[in-house]
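Quick bug: Nucleoside hydrolase output formatted oddly.
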Amino acid sequence: MPVPVILDCDPGVDDALAIVLAAADPAIDLLAITTVAGNVGLDKTTRNARRVCDLAGITGVPVAAGCDRPLAQDPHISDHTHGESGLGPLTVGEPETPLAGEHAVDLIHRLLGESETPVTIIAVGPLTNIATLFRRYPGDRSRVARVVIMGGSTERGNAMPYAEFNTYADPEAADEVLRSGVPTVWHGLNVTYQALATPDIIESIAALGTPLADACVQLMTYYAESYRTVWRVPHPPVHDAVAVAYVIDESLIECAHTALRVELRGEHTRGATVADLLGRTDWEPNAHVGVTLDAARFWPLLVSAIRTLGA
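Here's what came back:
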């Protein structure tokens, strides 16, 4: 049976690929796409999610806008990586995909109540919407099977030396979701940097020859240039699609059950995730953390999704 999923995102180039994968793969029953301020402001992330639905022919999946700022700090965006619009070179006009007439948090609450089974939330942006859901509707925690997160790192960061962008953008929200009692699985930079869009990968997508494939190639080509310029790495990682792939096939990613904390007060480390992989503390394991990705099996999954929706 397909896994009922709500995808919470902040499109963003790699979010676009995550949307395509979640909508295309038969292992997922995509109930909704919800947006949050993150890579760019909420108005742009919401427009971008709707635009991706247009490009990919995704219909019947509600798109709802959520929180426009973090719980306790000023917004932090990443337009230097994703472009001013958030979708790099793509022309982003007024989308045709409609916007749901309710706040994302209220939509998630309603869908959780309507589902016959607990729902998996895949969260690939700052965790503001999910923390707000648990604050506003604490009973919904029992209706969430787990939260699968693209966030954090067991190594270095990208927003700051030790803080990954999504956790740095709203550390309080990340901390609250981690401590909510809902099972969490964290796929951080240490594992997403194993999903690199090398030229041969981009060429295999271009070979599909569809408008959707062409849009994905434009996105990843732009993303590659951003990563070479901003991060000085030769190939861009498609972070967010990794979290979706895990829900489709858990065997793609080896995880460690470990103790995890979100740093809230460090002068130089605010927003960092601290994973006790070596058991150096007396903390009880409270999360699963991605460690290794089978990239040889990951990429065919994503290319197949682009082929499916582009047909």
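Actually, after a second look the formatting is fine. Residues 211-231 form the longest helix (21 residues). Closing.
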